[in-house]
Amino acid sequence: MILVPLQEPEAARRNIRLLLLRDDLTHPELPGNKWRKLKYNLTEAQQLGHDTLLTFGGAFSNHIAAVAAAGRLTGLRTIGIIRGEETPPLNPTLARAAADGMTLRYLDRETYRRKQDPAFLAELLRETGPAYIIPEGGSNALALPGCAELVTELAAETTFDYLCVACGTGGTLAGLLTALAPHQQAVGIAALKNGGFLRTDVDALTQAATGHTFPNYDLRTDYHLGGYARFSLELLDFIHAFQTRHGVLLDPVYTGKLLFGVLDLLRQDYFAAGSTVVAVHTGGLQGWTGFRQRFGHRSAWWPEGV
Ligand SMILES: Cc1ncc(COP(=O)(O)O)c(C=O)c1O
């Protein structure tokens, strides 16, 4: 586990130890929360005798990329149900997924909303054949124990008071929560504009996985910077400056907002003076190529190699 101390004047002024947990480096092909969330799902799929994984995601989804890679690594077939119309040629995320062997199927946005409806899923499986279904973002009860392991590994390295993570579906935050000590606080930074649903979803996930919910977390829905996967020059400038200061590249959909939010919360004295704050780099760097393809004309700066 790599923990990078972030020398930020705002932290030093408050005697706060700010650490970046480089979970993006934990697994070479399933970075960050992807390996954490998939680990026990892959075991379960294999134990149940499945040879196919079926999952859901948007056209630039890190989760789709990760499931496709997991299929290549495990020998399981993969089917990706992609939200929206097919728009050839494939974008870099889907091209990579297809190269990893994933079969891509597209659903219009209206039908896609039924992605959790059991009747719809049964109908889908009749068309595709039997498969182990992993929900969008990989967030189900089995995603939680893998994420909980991050906390155990971290606690073996250092004491800490706050654990901050970016949220999409809330599965990662839910998993971290299940392993925190009661005096430790999780802070979720929502990447989506209308993140109000997250508390319900996080509570439902911890309830499903452990039989109860956890009070020691906060959700911040005010750092979406325009919404999910939207372009924000302010965010891009922040990511650029952060890379210049710390030599670490964040992603433009999740972890950029996480660090943007954490540093802003620091300035607002949200974290107790003298405490240790850990922010988790959950990966997502595969998203840069597609992001640049969509918004290349809107910024002069882009990270090297994307
Ligand atoms: C890089 C990255 N970080 C954070 C998240 C948020 O994870 P979750 O959907 O479990 O809230 C995601 C989405 O899966 C992601 O791809």
UniProtKB/TrEMBL annotation:
Its cofactor is pyridoxal 5'-phosphate. Keywords: Pyridoxal phosphate. The modification N6-(pyridoxal phosphate)lysine is found at K34. The active site is at S61 (nucleophile). It comes from the Bacteria. Transmembrane segments: none annotated. Coiled coil: none annotated. Residues 12-283 form the Tryptophan synthase beta chain-like PALP domain. It holds the Pfam family PALP. The keyword Cell division does not apply. GO terms for molecular function: D-cysteine desulfhydrase activity. Belongs to the ACC deaminase/D-cysteine desulfhydrase family. This is Pyridoxal-phosphate dependent enzyme. It comes from Hymenobacter psychrotolerans DSM 18569.
